[in-house]
Design goal:
The complex is a heterodimer. By secondary structure, chain A is mainly α. Chain A has one domain. Helix content of chain A is 70%, strand content 4%. Chain A is globular and about 60 Å long. By secondary structure, chain B is mostly helical. In chain B, the strands form two sheets. Chain B has a two-stranded antiparallel sheet with strand order 1-4. In chain B, strands 2-3 form a two-stranded antiparallel sheet. The chains are: A mainly alpha, B mainly alpha. Chain A: Belongs to the binding-protein-dependent transport system permease family. LivHM subfamily.
Chain lengths: 294, 373
């Protein structure tokens, strides 16, 4: 039983990271109707910035600065590669972000180099023991940080002028334009938000150990998450992220019982889960069904 | 009904019948150009060194795979990031059928190319049909992500199923290029291995390319383009969406399976981690840089992307700041990866029709010269 609870709580911790990454995808999708395949590169850039800045600034100083710089990088991508493509089919823009991702990751990998890098986080692999259940500090921290950020984001969308503008632009771009909403600013802000979220999520994904260039694969797990939750649903991203995290960690806990599936089957759990959900609900759990006009 | 099969004299671009416009080679110029291209291809092995021929043979195989992706993504408009998965299915089906029965990895010992090549295509095509129900339910970006999931699931299976794939870092031998026990690539007095390899792959590319062109101009191909342009409108005019999307995936996967089976015969070894997302991205890049929705574009894109490392290595002589040492910055490998990304972006922003579009521009310029229209 305690291994189940441990797996579940670990899943919540890992899932919080996925939720943060998935929120970035969903925010960009809601504003621009584009899935950004550039998120892995943004995440890796954020993590590398933290690992370099944490030496002079300390972890808590480096995290906001890195998030800010990654937000600027997101802004740059939006201006340079995505804005010129307005009005073109969504898949073309998605492929462009794929190209951006490949190009940026090469540059970021140069800064990772061959040495072992870590984000100098204060938690390491320390654990909290309640009864016979061990919970890692970094998972608690990831969950708390995600909770604060998610609450902040929802408040932002609900109570601020800019949040209202973003919701309006997501609803109907032309109507929002007619009401004086600067849709360009909405695009820019959504990319910046997504960049910052990717940096924070990535940092928690890298916490507790060393990381290398393959960390970008973590950000791709956010893709099954957003499909699961529905592409245009913010609560869906959070619920989907936690669900995928828990599923993945529970499979990891019990995968020794199914050796015929091969080691590390937990790595592909999110994708299998996504395929199963899509067979039943093509628009995810919380996504809106598209209404098509010819 | 009489069908005019020839253009009126002196007016080669006046089409007097639909069937002639839809023809495989609608103008005399096309016929002549195709003949010249064939002749050059046949004579190329006498002009180039073996290393270059090997590279060009790889290009031909990649082109078969790119044509397959072009059919589903360029013609039918279904974005698939899962091409690496189907390439992998083909590669392993072929190598299991042709593998040594007493070897370390599973093998049936049927080394005949005429058996394992179609089998690889058919098994991959079957997987395409299995995936197709998802494709008929999903559209656009949802489909792209699902096919991306396929690559990860496939990569896991390829990495773990070591009795078939040999395991990560070890791999297994590629299928043998034999027909009825007669080796197609043995070095003889008249021709070297690489010369024969090039002829074989160029010949196969010709067969696959002509078949794809024929498919594209048939009823099925027109249904594909109708779905790409507007799937609901296509459904309204009576195109059976589920059926034609399934056909598109099946044919595309068949091509991928065949390409996957052949791809590793050049180097002779298959390593399971080859079938990663990067391979899928390379094929997407081939189709988009070459020109989506054209067969010749897919071929041009495949040659361009496959030759890219070589082109950069040649350029390196002129750009001394790029290092060939993998430990220095910037090195050849980094420039190559960045170029994949940058080329995709540049082509999509400035010339969405790809290399094919550049060719059309150049052709139209000289066709109407000295006028600008």
């Amino acid at each position: 039983m305690s291994s189940f609870v441990e797996g579940f709580l670990r899943g919540i911790g890992v899932g919080s990271v996925y939720a943060l990454l998935a929120l970035g995808f969903v925010i960009i999708y809601k504003a621009t109707r584009v899935i950004s395949f550039a998120q892995p590169a943004l995440m890796l850039a954020g993590v590398v910035l933290v690992s370099h800045l944490a030496v002079p600034l300390g972890f808590w100083g480096a995290l906001p600065v890195a998030a800010l710089l990654t937000a600027l990088l997101g802004l740059g991508i939006e201006r340079g590669a995505v804005r010129p493509m307005i009005g073109r089919p969504a898949f073309v823009v998605a492929i462009i972000t794929l190209g951006v991702d490949v190009a940026i990751r090469v540059v970021v990998n140069i800064f990772i180099g061959l040495d072992v890098r870590n984000v100098h986080d204060p938690w390491g692999l320390g654990t909290l023991v309640i009864g016979d259940v061990h919970i890692e500090h970094r998972h608690i921290a990831a969950f708390l940080c995600a909770a604060v950020l998610v609450a902040g984001l929802f408040a932002f969308f609900r109570f601020t002028r800019m949040g209202l503008a973003m919701r309006a632009a997501a609803d109907d771009q032309e109507a929002a334009l007619a009401q004086g909403v600067s849709v360009g600013a909405v695009f820019a802000l959504s990319w910046a938000l997504a960049g910052a979220l990717a940096a924070v999520g990535g940092t928690f994904a890298a916490a507790g150990g060393s990381f290398d260039g393959t960390l970008w694969l973590t950000a791709l797990v956010a893709l099954p998450v957003i499909i699961l939750g529905g592409l245009d649903s913010l609560p869906g991203a959070v619920v989907g992220g936690l669900a995928v995290g828990v599923a993945q960690e529970l499979v990891a806990t019990y995968q020794n019982h199914t050796p015929w599936l091969g080691g590390n089957v937990s790595v592909i759990t999110p994708y299998v889960l996504m395929l199963l959900v899509l067979l039943v609900r093509p628009y995810g759990l919380f996504g809106t069904r598209e209404v098509e006009r010819v | 009904m009489t069908v005019a099969t020839k253009a009126p004299r002196g007016r080669p671009l006046l089409f007097t019948s639909y069937s002639r416009e839809m023809g495989l080679f609608p103008t005399t110029t096309r016929k002549v150009a195709f003949g010249v291209l064939l002749a050059v291809t046949a004579l190329l092995p006498f002009m180039l060194a073996d290393a270059e021929l090997q590279l060009l043979a790889t290009c031909c195989i990649a082109a078969i795979g790119a044509i397959g992706l072009g059919l589903v993504t360029g013609y039918a408009g279904q974005v698939s990031l899962g091409h690496a998965f189907f390439l992998g299915i083909g590669a392993y089906t072929a190598s299991v059928i042709s593998g040594d029965p007493d070897g370390r990895t599973l093998g049936l010992g049927v080394t005949n190319l005429l058996v394992w090549l179609p089998a690889a295509g058919l098994v991959a095509g079957l997987f395409g049909v299995i995936v197709a129900p998802l494709a008929t339910r999903l559209r656009g970006l949802y489909l792209a992500i699902v096919t991306l999931g396929l690559v990860f699931i496939g990569a896991h299976i390829f990495n773990e199923w070591s009795s078939v794939t040999g395991g990560v870092g070890v791999g297994r031998p590629a299928p043998t290029l034999e027909v009825f026990g007669w080796s197609l690539t043995e070095t003889t007095a008249s021709a070297t291995r690489d010369q024969k390899l090039f002829w074989l792959m160029a010949g196969l590319l010709l067969v696959f390319a002509l078949a794809a062109r024929n498919l594209a101009r048939s009823r099925v191909g027109r249904a594909f383009t109708a779905i790409r342009d507007r799937d609901i409108a296509a459904g309204v005019i009576g195109v059976n969406l589920a059926r034609y999307k399934t056909i598109a995936f099946a044919v595309s996967s068949f091509y991928a399976g065949c390409a996957g089976a052949l791809l590793f015969t050049v180097t002779g070894f298959i390593e399971p981690s080859s079938f990663s997302l990067l391979l899928s991205v390379q094929y997407i890049a081939m189709v988009l840089i070459g020109g989506a929705g054209t067969i010749s574009g897919a071929i041009a894109g495949a040659f361009f992307i496959t030759l890219l490392p070589r082109i950069i290595r040649e350029l390196q002589a002129f750009l001394p700041f790029i290092s060939t040492d993998a430990n220095e910055v910037p090195n050849v490998l980094q420039v190559e990866s960045i170029l994949y990304g940058v080329l995709i972006i540049v082509f999509l922003i400035f010339e969405p029709r790809g290399l094919f579009g550049l060719w059309v521009r150049a052709r139209n310029y000289w066709k109407s010269w000295p006028f600008s229209y």
